[in-house]
Structure formats: C-alpha cells, structure tokens
Design the sequence.
C-alpha cells in the first residue's frame, strides 16, 4: 500500500523464531551445512526472498522523501480506491462481491454472465460459473 518494493518490506512479530519455523524450507541444496562459519548466520532461510536481505535503507529513503503524511495518504488512498471499487461493483448488474464488505484493499468479486442470472444457484451452476474466467482471458 505504501509503494515499497518487496525487498523493503518488514514483518515483525513478538514471538521470536515463529516465522522462521513456519516458512523455513531448510533446502540443503541451497544452504550447505559444511561452512567454515556458524551457519545460523545464513539469512537465506530467514527471508521471503531466500538469499536476499531486507533492504531497510530503501525504505528509510522512501520514508524520508514522503514523510509520515505522504505514507498515510498512500494507505488512505488505497482504502478509498477499494471503497470506490466496491460501490461500483455493487451498482453494476452482473457483478457480485465475494464478501459483503472488504477487509483490506483486496476487493474480490464474481462476474455473473447474463445467461447465469436469475437461475438456481446450485452446485452445477457454480461449477459452470467457475469456468467463466477461463473462457474470457484478459
């Protein structure tokens, strides 16, 4: 929401080691254990992007350039755009929200083609509807 690249992202938790425990692949072909140093310092298995470290300096520069107000505006704008999208989908025939209200800035919806509208929404109906997106690629 702030426009920061992934490598600038941080996700901090109170529970030490929880993310490492949940996401560690321990891929021996990537993280050989026969190093001449303590392998617990290898960051590859502790990061979303494997061997790439979190680049906090880029985030700091972005924060200095935009400031608190600028970053706040970007997040507020993302939520306003999500609200606008929700209102547009609710007012257009053939679109149905997956959730009655969005929980963040992701607005998920179904497109209901005219041939599907007003029909009984049974298992067969949903099975056919699931194939609509595949039939109409971007």
Sequence:
């Amino acid at each position: 929401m702030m426009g920061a690249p992934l490598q600038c992202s941080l996700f901090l938790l109170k529970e030490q080691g929880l993310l490492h425990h949940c996401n560690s692949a321990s891929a021996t072909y990537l993280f050989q254990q026969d190093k001449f140093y303590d392998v617990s310092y290898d960051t590859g298995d502790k990061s979303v992007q494997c061997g790439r470290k979190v680049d906090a300096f880029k985030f700091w520069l972005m924060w200095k350039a935009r400031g608190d107000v600028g970053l706040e505006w970007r997040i507020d704008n993302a939520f306003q755009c999500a609200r606008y999208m929700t209102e547009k989908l609710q007012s257009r025939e053939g679109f149905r929200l997956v959730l009655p209200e969005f929980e963040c800035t992701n607005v998920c919806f179904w497109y209901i083609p005219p041939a599907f509208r007003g029909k009984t929404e049974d298992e067969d109906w949903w099975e056919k509807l699931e194939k609509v997106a595949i039939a109409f690629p971007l």
